[in-house]
């Protein structure tokens, strides 16, 4: 099943700090989709919520790694990088919804959880109700029901309200988990990933040895700096393939690869299918 995009229409109804959330897309990703890695990416102007209907996996969200399982909700705040790598044997099935105009008191727009809190919540007894709401949202868009944009906004409000009743994990002690040098390295890579950067150039910029940089970075992310750069580039290319009409050659150049053939080879090696087939799979064409 592909991703269903929603063309937004203005609404005068109000809630959640004087505005209704607006649905950007919804999808139910089954095993066919989830066995393909969805590498490092972020959503700059929206919040994404993922519900694990079945299976398990490991996700990097911001600076923290989470083991996730059936019944978990994953919160991807706007501008927060995340990397999704599933357990290939668990046949994972998930619902995803992207939304904008989410305004919670005391938080930036399109944020549902503070940076200091866990981004993964177990739904417990609320799992069935949450799955039902997500199924209703998907049905509205997939079947193009009358006034489905407005209906989905109200359903999203109900979903958010229900999520906020779930007991949360204890705050993450980020000061103890992430040292300042690692955060500086990660910030530098996230800013320059599409440029011609190497481990040596990063080490020079950080005034530290390449060995120490690589050891420190892998300690906190599970990836070497070069692996992280590749996943960051491929993750961005996946978003462009799904959400834009840029050609594969254009996307290769936008994500740091001058040679589109090399980009296609690398993409296929990491994701398991070519960029062209990946776009067709997600768009259902």
TrEMBL record:
Pfam families: AraC_binding, HTH_18. This is HTH araC/xylS-type domain-containing protein. Residues 183-281 form the HTH araC/xylS-type domain. GO terms for molecular function: DNA-binding transcription factor activity; sequence-specific DNA binding. Gene3D superfamilies: Homeodomain-like, Jelly Rolls. The keyword Coiled coil does not apply. PANTHER family: ARAC-FAMILY TRANSCRIPTIONAL REGULATOR (PTHR43280), HTH-TYPE TRANSCRIPTIONAL ACTIVATOR RHAS (PTHR43280:SF28). It comes from the Bacteria. InterPro entries: AraC-bd, Homeodomain-like_sf, HTH-like, HTH_AraC, RmlC-like_jellyroll, Tscrpt_reg_AraC-type_HTH. Keywords: DNA-binding, Transcription, Transcription regulation. The keyword Protein biosynthesis does not apply. It comes from Bacillus safensis.
């Amino acid at each position: 099943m592909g991703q269903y995009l929603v063309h937004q229409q203005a609404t005068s109804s109000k809630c959640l700090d004087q505005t209704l959330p607006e649905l950007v897309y919804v999808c139910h990703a089954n095993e066919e989709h989830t066995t393909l890695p969805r590498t490092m990416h972020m959503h700059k102007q929206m919040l994404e919520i993922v519900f694990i209907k079945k299976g398990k996996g490991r996700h990097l969200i911001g600076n923290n790694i989470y083991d996730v399982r059936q019944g978990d909700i994953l919160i991807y705040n706007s501008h927060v990088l995340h990397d999704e790598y599933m357990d290939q044997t668990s046949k994972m099935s998930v619902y995803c919804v992207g939304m904008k105009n989410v305004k919670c008191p005391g938080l930036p727009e399109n944020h549902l959880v503070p940076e200091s809190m866990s981004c993964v919540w177990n739904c417990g007894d609320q799992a069935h109700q949450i799955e039902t709401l997500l199924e209703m949202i998907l049905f509205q868009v997939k079947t193009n029901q009358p006034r489905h944009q407005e209906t989905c906004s109200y359903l999203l409000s109900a979903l958010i309200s229900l999520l906020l009743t779930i007991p949360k994990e204890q705050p993450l002690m980020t000061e103890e988990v992430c040292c300042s040098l690692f955060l500086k390295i990660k910030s530098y890579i996230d800013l320059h990933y599409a440029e011609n950067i190497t481990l040596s150039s990063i080490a020079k910029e950080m005034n530290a040895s390449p060995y120490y940089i690589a050891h420190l970075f892998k300690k906190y992310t599970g990836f070497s700096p070069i692996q992280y750069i590749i996943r960051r580039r491929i993750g961005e290319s996946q978003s462009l393939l799904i959400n834009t009409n840029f050609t594969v050659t254009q996307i290769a150049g936008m994500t740091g690869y001058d040679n589109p053939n090399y980009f296609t080879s690398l993409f296929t090696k990491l994701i398991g299918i070519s960029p062209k087939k990946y776009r067709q799979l997600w768009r259902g064409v």
